[in-house]
Amino acid sequence: MKSKIDAFMKEIEARNGLEPEFMQAVQEVAETVIPYIISQEIYHGKNILMRMVEPERVVTFRVAWVDDQGEICVNRGYRIQMNSAIGPYKGGLRFHPTVNMSILKFLAFEQVFKNSLTTLPMGGGKGGSDFDPKGKSDNEIMRFCQSFMTELYRHIGPNTDVPAGDIGVGGREIGFLYGMYKRLKNEFTGVLTGKGISWGGSLIRPEATGYGTVYFAESMLKTKGDSMKGKTVLVSGSGNVAQYATEKATQLGAKVVTLSDSSGYIYDADGIDAEKLAYVMELKNVKRGRISEYVKQYPSANFTKGKTPWHEKCDVALPCATQNELLGEDAKALLANGCFVVSEGANMPSDLDAVHAFLDAKILYAPGKASNAGGVATSGLEMSQNSLRMNWTREEVDTKLREIMNNIHDACIKYGQDENGYVDYVKGANIAGFVKVADAMLAQGVV
Ligand code: GLU
After folding, report:
1. Ligand 1 atom closest to residue 107's alpha carbon, by position in its atom list
2. Candidate from 80, 104, 110, 111 with most ligand 1 atoms within 8 A of CB, to mutate
3. DSSP of 84-129, one letter per residue?
4. Would you name the residues annotated as active-site residues?
């Protein structure tokens, strides 16, 4: 088996060897999906996984814009249209200086499996730019978004490709992008998700990724007759996903003790309750400040510069920051300190060593493509509401989100449970995500 996986990865490396994050995402899928393909005759001789790792289309483009000083700046824009077998391409846009082809291809590849798991008709894509929104004025952000859309608009559409937010792209950016798309096409359609409530957005969309990550942790705990109540939780990140994961974990009776950003993490032994979270939301979303400022407001907390939170003691870890933020040695520290639940809110936050450490320890470990699917699932619900020209209530959307997260959990059990009852959620998510897309691709022929 190992030699089959190695042979496949060698071929992938020949074409994509300079893309380490993409290789990592493919390796993780290959480890579980190749054995499954070998066990299922219908996939033999179809080269199906090789077809899935090759994007259907990749667009890169120049984004020129003028800053507040009148300087002309140039960034690179991307859209990876990975797979449209089960629906229009769907996935976020990331604006961050680290954005490159490898990062976006790994995200687009994971998105294909994630979107398949949601049970909604969405293919997979991802895009963005190496633009750094940090320290930019609202006007600069607007001019950048407008320039970005003057090229992107010809590649997307409500039945073709529906982008949304990701790191560095929130409600403000979606607004500027949508305004320019509408002007260029003279159409009011559901071409982007994460829109404002008064212009086609869905209730619960901002909360969905973080809430879904905690719902998934709760479902995993339920299989052991346990719950989030009374658990000590480490959350990394302090953006949209981290904020709403903290809110939901706290609502379910857990105590969240950490948050972080690229400069370090804060530890609050008393827990980050609703009032403290409201402060963090104002700090990060309105003032666009740094998490270190938390300790000025709440002096009993402390800030550790340049470190991630994984060496603190906890029951549950929710990595909600970014890719490869939790390494093999961090996983070992978590396990040594008694952590027995990891539910990923970010995309691929654990490196392969960490994934293997969690699987070997047989803890409750959910990969992001399962546990953070609530965000894109609610984007799918936003698309449905746009097509129906209707708005569902908060309760309706939240009920559907919970149902979807439960279905994803069931699908992971279906394909990931072994004879002793242990659930490998990585295997379960990869195979369940794969089957739906692969079957659609086989039905549609070699295209
Ligand atoms: N960027 C989010 C993700 O990683 C959301 C994508 C979407 O809503 O289309 O799934």
Report:
1. 4
2. 111
3. -SSSSEEEEEEE-TT--HHHHHHHHHHHHHHHHHTTSS--EEEEEE
4. 126
Residue carrying the six token digits 């509401």: 385
SS3 assignment, position 52: helix
CA 42 – ligand 1 centroid, Å = 31
Exposed, middle or buried by CB within 10 Å (0-12, 13-18, 19+), for 72? exposed
Instruction: Please determine whether the domains at 54-189 and 206-366 fall in the same fold group of CATH.
Output: yes
Render pLDDT for 14-26 as a digit per residue (tens, 0 to 9): 999 899 999 999 9
- The answer to whether the beta carbons of residues 209 and 262 sit under 8 Å apart is no
Q: Where are the domains of the chain?
A: 2-52, 54-189, 206-366
Query: pLDDT tens digits for 331-369?
Result: 999 999 999 999 999 999 999 999 999 999 999 999 999
CATH superfamily, domain 206-366, is NAD(P)-binding Rossmann-like Domain (3.40.50.720)
Rounded to the nearest angstrom, the distance between the alpha carbon of 204 and the centre of ligand 1 is 14
Instruction: Give pLDDT tens digits for 356-402.
Output: 999 999 999 999 999 999 999 999 999 999 999 999 999 999 999 99
Q: What is the pLDDT of residue 435?
A: 98
Question: Which of 174, 177, 209 maximizes ligand 1 atoms within 8 Å of its Cβ, making it the mutation to test the pocket?
Answer: 209
Q: Which fold has domain 54-189?
A: Rossmann fold (3.40.50)
State which ligand 1 atom lies nearest to the alpha carbon of 378.
8
Distance 24 CA to ligand 1 centre (A): 20
